[in-house]
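During the first year of the project, the team set up a workflow for recording each protein of interest as an amino acid sequence followed immediately by a discrete structure-token representation. This format lets reviewers and collaborators read both layers of information side by side without switching files. As required by the reporting guidelines, we include two representative entries from the current panel. The first entry is reproduced here exactly as it appears in our internal archive.
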Amino acid sequence: MKPRHASFTDKKDLFRAAIWRANQQASEDLKQRITADPEGGLPHRLWMHSMLAALANPLVAAQIRGQSDLFQGLMGTFDQKARSQLVGHADTYVTQLQQAGLIRTDLPVPALSDLIRRWLEPEQLPSDTTAGKQALGEWLEHFTTIEGQHE
């Protein structure tokens, strides 16, 4: 039996195939990491294993790091349905986590899934990061103040 070779009409087709394959590889790696970890189903472990699996794959790592220059605008070659499949069904995932008691149920699913989408689609965010940096700085300052009160 001859090995099957994919044919690509242009570099965009090749790019899409490479992204899909990289995401499949990262997903398999993630499943293996979570299965091997006795605490793999807990949110902090899911997050850690997700990042490790993603960063172990150079193409997925570039997506997560928002290295859009690497892709030279090719992410836009995915239609919205394909982009949604790449990002996943965040609403379903969040609902499952809530039902399992792993995250709060008093927060609306769309708000939580929007956070997940924003982490996974950094190229869709505004380019001005000043507000995010300021918010983190204020939160860290508040954290430091609270920590200082308990010393």
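The second entry, processed by the same pipeline in the following quarter, appears below.
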Amino acid sequence: MSQSPEVGFFHTMYHHCLSRIISLSSPSLPAESPPPPLPSLQDQILDACTKSDAPKLRNLLSTWEDMLMKQAAGSGGVKVVQCFLDRDPTNDGLDQKMLVTAAQYGNVSVFEYLLHKRPSTKVDDDVRSYALEGGVGIWKVILDHNPDFINWDFGEKGDLIAMTALMNNVSLLAYFLDKGLDPNRSQFFLIPTLKAVINMPHIKREIIDLLIEYGATMEKSEKALNEWLMR
């Protein structure tokens, strides 16, 4: 199951705070010598071949293939992706995995190719979640494909406005607001988005300014939230 961006955000913040608390409360220790470097994946593959360790080799090759796939879809061109897909005639969902990766890393040309030229691909929840990291270019392709996706949300966890604001993505937030999304109808865990982000110290001032510029107010946000809860 792929991890959605909002879960990843809170996971990162939790561990950052936890590590900070531990560092402040722990006594200083003498510096230790760094551990020896781990063998590279290539070295591990060669070692497994030398030792005829077939189970380990299969696992390592699977990891290697996954790394190549992510590199091709995340930063390669269309011809590179075509070459990669042509190597596996069974496909087995590979083009959909590459679509998710292209969305995450903002590789617009590859994303557009996979969505329009590979009939088995689709814009599912994973694609839309990771597209929040990919940026405006990816979302332009998604909304050209299906304009209704502008209304996609996470239920009580939030919507496109809330998630983009929490990720401090100024350009993508401006894009969604320009598309007509109402910041007063945006909520994050049943808290109006404007109210939520104002109380978060990591949020950029530009995010709050944008929400206010497009009409967000505390009063209107609270009213819209109450209407949403009464539905």
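For the second entry, the following points were noted during internal review. Strands lie at 187-188, 191-192. Residues 153-231 form one domain. Both points are flagged for discussion at the upcoming steering committee meeting.
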